[in-house]
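[job 4417] fold queue: 2 targets
>>> target A
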Amino acid sequence: MLDESPPFFIVGCERSGTTLLMVYLDSHPELVIPPESHVFHRFYEFLSGYGDLKQDKNLRLLVRDLLNDVWIQRWQNDKTVDDFLTTLTEKFFGAVL
């Protein structure tokens, strides 16, 4: 039976061993670790182009672009933009990530 425990995130600097830690954790039968997304590095540079994320249309565009991102697509996530937005509690880049 699938446990509905909340997700947790482990972050770290490049070349610090996070990939090795990911491999170790992913070997556990009760954990699912998606492939690395590198999303922060790839999206942060263009973040100002989305405008004020407190405006729904700007936030929706960012979420759409993230969900359509080739690296995120590898996660095989079936969430729609609307699904994602209904679970979002705050409107800023860090909350989206």
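>>> target B
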Amino acid sequence: MPLDALLDPQGKAVTSGLHNIGLNDLQNVRIGKHITIEVSASSESEAQKVVDEACKKLLANPVMEYYTFKLYQQN
């Protein structure tokens, strides 16, 4: 997601569009990206470490974005 301090032009455009169709109770829309990754790891902590490293090194730009992630165990 873009950092809160940065202007989000896409979010502003969507907020305006929502207001144009009568959805005036919706404010401060922020547009981000969603990435799905399949991880092979021997433990949950190892998977968290690998995903965090991928985010820090490549997937997120910490100057402009922040990230969160959730792990889901596949059966």
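[job 4417] complete. Note on B: The two ends are 29 Å apart (CA to CA).
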